[in-house]
């Protein structure tokens, strides 16, 4: 190699090293530990906490005020030696996933056509809203310390206090680990590039640092001669600053920006000012305005003019300053240096300019003035990085209350990987995907007047359970209306029809699926079941069973099993005959109630079971039973489900149970007690139960019913009657806006989803196709499809 070529190569290497060093300086930190603690400058350390969204925009006024007070107190918590940064990001889902996501895997050939259609439908819906973005919220804070060992306990104390404060408004939070903090920084430094990092990478190269993996390879701060944008590794980027606020600061000013379906990051930098210094600053401003007022009057008097009042601007400024001084002295407010930034990026210059215009115009609609940072894109970029260091001098003074008004909570999303699709957000069109198994109590209810879509919604869930979990779950539908057979059979399941002419029988005494349980426990369960069965047949109203009647029933149930032998199973007739043998007159009355179930056309429950619940989807059809028999049939079916639940639990399966017309079980005290026991016990044995009802007031009017509803973490409310709307508003403390999502103006399938602490207005409209045809219960459509036996709901 010639000397000239060597010199050229050396010069290129030096230039490359210089460029690389320059981009490393942009990373915003010096060292990062695996636990997420970062050194951002000598003697300055930071940590980041990720916190979740909550229902704010649709909440009641008193709830919003509580959230506001909590956020204000959280900001007041930090001392003057601390810098704080609130960051909200919209991160794009990888391009290869958009429109190509597999929501349901193919596990059974009989389901393939439904899996393909559901995946297509949900991918189409995903493109409609912001479901191609992942929204995250972060709180970053700094502390001064000599080294990491001194900083870690200080940051841990601050982290725990912040976590507790956020928990009071039901916002879940957790510390962000080091690798995730690096990924977040990389996503802002080189937005269009992949991030491949592992701590083992550092151990393999003694000279390597984490910043080598985070820093962009190239940056141009004057692309095409511009001073209000820059390029980083091919991505066009722009940082904007919040310059001013309108006369009224609205609590959705940030939410309106964050709800934009574009990649962006919004950051708020806060630095507390010592209280005594803040008071002196404001008092000094008031003193200056007093002097200015005297000067205006003196100058006017020298001209022979007597001023009764000074300029409007000065009067307003003085009033604002006096109000601020009162807040600082008497209302627990503190003063902060505040700076707000918005950052967005795109693959092309034209796309970037369009996104920037959307942000600026949207902010203007919320009375915010947002401007591009001309000639200061580099400083603004460094300020956007989540390390709580503001590198750009665009600060202004705000109180903790004014900052708390800028709520970091936008439109609530329920998007849990591996969950069930329930609809789309009415606000953002985001997919509502819920993992019921992740809820503290996965039990739930679906309420709505007839024709509002509750049956379709839950049958859709039933089918999705089959597609999503395969052999790890079993779905059972108790079907008083005769609608479930097509769905069960489509999923490779069976429909069991209980009727005088069906030839399919369920024995209330059957215990074959719980043979592994100890005998006393089996008998205790059956006694409860027969108390409920007996109560369901009472003609005297709902006064319940007497203690004598309860004792007689328990005695005869246990004796029936004793006489049947070790391998035998009694039937209703054995129980009936034992009642007739008892000396008490009350026993004869109980036997009389059972007589029609033992003799005549209703005796099909007086048979040994010839059906099983082994199929992955089971529909128990009670449509052909009269109203008096349906509750008896439902209780008998629930006993079979309970037996099956224990077996599924032993095999590691969850049991998904759907009970239509669940209000039928709340007419007799003994039936209610049985169902409450079944509900509470099921949660311990992998039961995910959903009750469907058109009569919310009936259940909310029962102490046990309302307790079961409030202790269930899943509620779907479709259109409600006027009476029921008022009850829900009181029971769930609904806001006026939330009530509008369940009133007469909504379409079938629309409603309010309540999952844990989250509330989300949703719409659930499936396009015409195979799945729509399977789920529909509209009479005209059912008849056209040749399924005229199904009734409308």
TrEMBL record:
This is TraG P-loop domain-containing protein. InterPro entries: P-loop_NTPase, T4SS_component. It comes from Gordonibacter pamelaeae 7-10-1-b. It comes from the Bacteria.
């Amino acid at each position: 190699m010639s000397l000239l070529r060597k010199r050229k190569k050396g010069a290129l290497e030096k230039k490359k090293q210089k460029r690389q060093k320059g981009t490393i300086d942009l990373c915003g930190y010096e060292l990062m530990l695996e636990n997420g603690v970062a050194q951002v400058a000598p003697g300055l350390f930071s940590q980041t906490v990720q916190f979740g969204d909550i229902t704010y925009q649709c909440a009641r006024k008193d709830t919003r005020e509580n959230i506001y007070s909590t956020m204000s107190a959280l900001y007041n918590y930090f001392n003057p030696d601390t810098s704080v940064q609130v960051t909200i990001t919209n991160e794009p889902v990888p391009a290869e996933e958009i429109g190509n996501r597999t929501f349901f895997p193919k596990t059974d050939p009989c389901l393939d056509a439904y899996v393909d259609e559901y995946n297509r439908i949900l991918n189409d819906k995903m493109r409609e809203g912001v479901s191609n973005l992942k929204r995250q919220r972060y709180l970053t804070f700094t502390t001064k310390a000599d080294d990491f060992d001194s900083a870690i306990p200080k940051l841990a104390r601050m982290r725990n206090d912040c976590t507790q404060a956020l928990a009071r408004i039901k916002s879940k939070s957790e510390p962000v680990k080091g690798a995730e903090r690096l990924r977040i920084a990389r996503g802002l430094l080189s937005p269009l590039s992949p991030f491949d990092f592992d701590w083992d990478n550092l151990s393999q190269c003694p000279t390597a640092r984490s910043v080598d993996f985070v820093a962009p390879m190239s940056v141009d701060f004057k692309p095409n001669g511009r001073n209000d944008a820059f390029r980083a590794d091919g991505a066009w980027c722009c940082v904007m600053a919040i310059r001013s606020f309108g006369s009224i600061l609205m609590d959705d000013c940030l939410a309106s920006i964050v709800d934009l379906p574009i990649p962006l990051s919004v950051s708020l930098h806060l630095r507390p000012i010592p209280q005594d210094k803040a008071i002196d600053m404001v008092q000094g401003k008031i003193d200056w305005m007093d002097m200015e007022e005297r000067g205006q009057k003196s100058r006017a008097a020298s001209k022979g003019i007597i001023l009764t009042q000074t300029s409007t601007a000065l009067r307003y400024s003085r009033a604002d300053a006096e109000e601020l001084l009162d807040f600082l002295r008497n209302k627990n407010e503190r003063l902060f240096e505040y700076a707000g930034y918005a950052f967005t990026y795109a693959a092309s210059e034209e796309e970037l300019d369009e996104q920037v215009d959307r942000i600026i115009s949207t902010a203007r609609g919320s009375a915010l003035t947002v401007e591009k940072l001309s000639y200061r894109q580099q400083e603004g970029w460094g300020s956007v990085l989540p390390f709580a260091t503001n590198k750009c001098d665009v600060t202004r003074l705000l109180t903790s209350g004014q900052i708390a008004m800028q709520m970091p909570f936008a439109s609530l999303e329920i998007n849990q990987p591996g969950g069930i699709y329930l609809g789309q957000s009415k606000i953002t069109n985001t997919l509502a995907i819920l993992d019921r198994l992740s809820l503290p109590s996965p039990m739930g209810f679906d309420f709505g007047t007839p024709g509002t879509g509750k049956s379709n919604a839950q049958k859709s869930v039933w089918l999705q359970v089959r597609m999503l979990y395969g052999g790890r779950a079993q779905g059972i539908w108790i079907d008083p209306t005769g609608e479930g057979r097509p769905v069960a059979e489509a999923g490779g399941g069976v429909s069991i029809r209980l009727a005088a002419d069906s030839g399919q029988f369920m024995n209330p005494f059957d215990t074959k699926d719980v043979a592994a349980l100890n005998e006393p426990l089996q008998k205790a369960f059956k006694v409860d079941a027969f108390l409920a069965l007996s109560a369901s047949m009472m003609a005297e109203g709902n006064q319940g069973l007497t203690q004598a009647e309860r004792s007689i029933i328990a005695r005869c149930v246990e004796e029936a099993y004793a006489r049947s032998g070790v391998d035998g199973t009694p039937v209703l007739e054995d129980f009936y005959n034992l009642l007739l043998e008892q000396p008490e007159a009350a026993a004869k009355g109980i036997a009389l109630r059972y007589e029609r179930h033992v003799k005549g056309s209703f005796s099909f429950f007086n048979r040994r079971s010839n059906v099983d619940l082994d199929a992955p989807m089971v529909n128990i059809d009670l449509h052909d039973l009269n109203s008096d028999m349906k509750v008896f049939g439902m209780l008998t079916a629930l006993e079979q489900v309970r037996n099956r639940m224990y077996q599924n639990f032993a095999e590691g399966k969850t049991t998904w149970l759907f009970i239509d017309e669940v209000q039928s079980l709340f007419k007799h005290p003994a039936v209610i007690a049985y169902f409450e026991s079944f509900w509470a016990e099921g949660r311990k044995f992998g039961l995910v139960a959903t009750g469907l009802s058109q009569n919310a007031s009936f259940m909310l009017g029962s102490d046990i019913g309302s307790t079961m509803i409030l202790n269930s973490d899943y509620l779907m409310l479709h259109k409600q009657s006027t009476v029921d709307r008022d009850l829900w508003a009181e029971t769930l403390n609904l806001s006026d806006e939330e009530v509008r999502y369940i009133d007469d103006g909504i379409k079938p399938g629309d409603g309010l989803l309540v999952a844990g602490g989250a509330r989300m207005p949703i719409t659930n409209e499936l396009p015409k196709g195979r799945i729509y045809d399977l789920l529909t219960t509209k009479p005209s459509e059912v008849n056209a499809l040749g399924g005229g036996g199904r009734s409308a709901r």
